[in-house]
Design brief:
Mean pLDDT: 94
Number of domains: 3
Strand order of the largest sheet: 13-12-9-10-11-14-19-18
CATH superfamily of the largest domain: ATP-grasp fold, B domain
CATH architecture of the largest domain: 2-Layer Sandwich
Structural class: alpha+beta
CATH topology of the largest domain: D-amino Acid Aminotransferase, Chain A, domain 1
CATH class of the largest domain: Alpha Beta
Low-confidence stretches: none
Oligomer: single chain
C-alpha cells in the first residue's frame, strides 16, 4: 500500500529533507523528536510531532521501543529512519514488522546480511563483484588475525565485522603492530556495535573512495552513477562529488554494473550505496561495503541525475515498482557537496554548538543548501555537529568549484564557528582543483598548515 502517514525517526537536516520530499507526495508527516529537539525546524515543518524521550540519543532516537510506540500512537503506516541512529538496525525493522508498520528501507534480513562486512563481502563475491583480498570470514582471536595476515602480506587493514563510520579501523604494518592493534580494534568495535568481531583486508595505500548509488524494488534495481568521497578526515567524509572525474567511461560502466548486479542478487529494496576503493594507477576497483540507507551525500546524485531519491525510496517502500529504466537515467554536468559542521577548524575541529545569531543563505541557480537552521535556534550539544550541506551543480567540475566558492562566500552563519573556512581553502587549493587527491590526502594537508585563520 502507498505510504499515507510517515513518521520521521531522525533529526536535523535529514529530517527536514524527508519531510519536504514526503509532503510533496501528499503524505502526512509526523516528526519524532527528543526533549532537546522540541523547537527544531523539522518539528515546525511537519504536519504533527511526537516526543520520544530525553535528549540522550540512547533514550530517544536510538530507543527502539520508544520509536515504535510513537509510530503506533500516531497511526503511522511507515517510518523513514534517515541515516545514522536506527537506519541500519535490523532489530528495529523487525519490531516495526511485528507492529504492521512499513520500514522505508530494506528488509531486516538484508540489513543483517549487507551490514555485516564479512557477509556482504561473500555476497559481493557470489555476484561477481571484485573485493579487496582479505579474510574469508570473521576473526575472533588475535592469533587468527595473525595467521590470515601472513597469507595476505602487510600492510593490512583491521576492520570491525559489524558497523561502519570508521570505528575499529587500524592499519598494521607488521605482526607486532597487528598483535597490538587487534585488541584495541576489538574493544572499539564492541563498544560501538556490541560486536567485537574483526576481519582483515590488504591495505591499499592512497586509493580513491568511489561509491555507487542504487535503488531496488525487490525484483529490479538501477544505479544513479557514482560519487567520489576521497576527501576525508579521520575516515569521515568532508567533501563529495558526482561523478568521479578520475574514472574513464569503460571503468564507470563496469563499476556501476557490478553495483546493480549485487543489488539484484540480494533482492534489495530502497536506496543503498555500494562503496569501493579505486586504484587510479591500475584502474582496478574493489568492493568494501554496502550502506543500506540513504546517505548524507545523496544530494549530489540528485543534482547530477535530476531524480529525488528520497521520494523514490518512499515509493518503493509502499510497494511501488521502480519508475525509471536504467537507460532513462542520465548524467548531467558535475555536482559537489561540502558538509558544514558546527566545529572550529582552527582548534582541531572542536565542536562549537551555540545560538544562531544571523543566517544568510546562498541564492542562485544550481545552488542548494540542505539544513535545519533558523535565526535564534540553539544548536544542541548532544548530537552530530552537522549543520547542513551546501551543494552546487555546473556543466564542468571546474565551474562547479568556482560556483562553490561563490556560494560559500554568500553563506553566513552567525553566532557559532563552522567549517566554512576549510571548504573555501580546499576549493582554492591547486591539488583539489587538479583532482590530485586520495583518501589520505586531507590530513597531511591540514597538518602542513594549509588552513589559515581568516581574521
Amino acid at each position: 500500500m502507498p505510504v499515507q502517514r510517515l513518521l520521521i525517526a531522525n533529526r536535523g537536516e535529514i529530517a527536514v529533507r524527508i519531510i519536504r520530499a514526503a509532503q510533496a507526495m501528499g503524505i502526512h508527516t509526523i516528526q519524532a523528536h527528543s526533549e532537546a529537539d522540541a523547537d527544531m525546524l523539522a518539528v515546525r515543518l511537519a504536519d504533527e510531532a511526537v516526543w520520544i524521550g530525553p535528549a540522550q540519543a540512547t533514550q530517544s532516537y536510538l530507543n527502539v521501543e520508544a520509536v515504535v510506540a510513537a509510530a503506533k500512537a500516531t497511526k503511522a503506516d511507515a517510518v523513514h529512519p534517515g541515516y545514522g541512529f536506527l537506519a541500519e538496525n535490523a532489530g528495529f525493522v523487525r519490531a516495526l514488522d511485528a507492529a504492521g508498520i512499513t520500514f522505508v528501507g530494506p528488509s531486516a534480513d538484508t540489513i543483517d546480511r549487507m551490514g555485516d562486512k564479512v557477509a556482504a563481502r561473500q555476497a559481493a563475491q557470489a555476484a561477481g563483484v571484485p573485493v579487496v583480498p582479505g579474510s574469508k570470514g570473521r576473526l575472533d582471536t588475535v592469533d587468527d588475525a595473525v595467521a590470515v595476515a601472513a597469507d595476505l602480506g602487510y600492510p593490512v587493514m583491521i576492520k570491525a565485522a559489524a558497523g561502519g563510520g570508521g570505528k575499529g579501523i587500524r592499519i598494521a604494518q607488521s605482526e607486532e603492530d597487528l598483535r597490538k592493534m587487534a585488541p584495541q580494534a576489538q574493544a572499539e568495535a564492541k563498544a560501538a556495535f556490541g560486536d567485537g568481531g574483526l576481519y582483515l583486508e590488504r591495505a591499499i595505500l592512497a586509493p580513491r573512495h568511489i561509491e555507487v548509488q542504487i535503488m531496488g524494488d525487490g525484483t529490479d534495481a538501477v544505479h544513479y552513477f557514482e560519487r567520489e568521497c576521497s576527501m576525508q578526515r579521520r575516515r569521515q567524509k568532508v567533501w563529495e562529488e558526482a561523478g568521479a572525474a578520475c574514472l574513464d567511461e569503460a571503468t564507470r560502466t563496469h563499476l556501476c554494473d557490478t553495483a546493480v548486479a549485487l543489488a539484484k542478487a540480494v533482492e534489495y529494496v530502497g536506496a543503498g550505496t555500494l562503496e569501493y576503493l579505486y586504484d587510479s594507477a591500475t584502474k582496478e576497483f574493489y568492493f568494501i561495503e554496502m550502506n543500506t540507507r540513504i546517505q548524507v551525500e545523496h544530494p549530489v546524485t540528485e543534482m547530477l541525475t535530476g531524480v529525488d531519491l528520497v521520494q523514490e525510496m518512499i515509493h518503493v517502500a509502499g510497494g511501488g515498482k521502480l519508475r525509471q529504466r536504467q537507460q532513462d537515467i542520465t548524467r548531467n554536468g558535475h555536482a559537489i557537496e561540502v558538509r558544514l559542521n558546527a566545529e572550529d577548524p582552527m582548534l582541531q575541529f572542536m565542536p562549537n554548538p551555540g545560538r544562531i545569531s544571523a543566517l544568510t543563505l546562498p541564492a542562485g541557480e544550481n545552488i542548494r543548501f540542505d539544513h535545519f537552521l533558523y535565526e535564534g535556534y540553539q544548536i544542541p550539544p548532544f548530537y552530530d555537529s552537522l549543520l547542513g550541506k551546501l551543494i552546487v551543480h555546473a556543466a564542468t567540475r571546474e565551474a562547479a568549484i568556482d560556483l562553490l566558492i561563490t556560494a560559500l562566500e554568500q553563506l553566513e552563519i552567525g553566532g557559532i564557528k563552522t567549517t566554512k573556512a576549510l571548504h573555501l581553502a580546499l576549493a582554492r587549493d591547486k591539488d583539489v582543483r587538479a583532482d590530485d587527491i586520495h583518501t589520505q590526502w586531507l590530513e597531511p594537508w591540514l597538518a602542513a598548515g594549509n588552513l589559515k585563520p581568516t581574521h
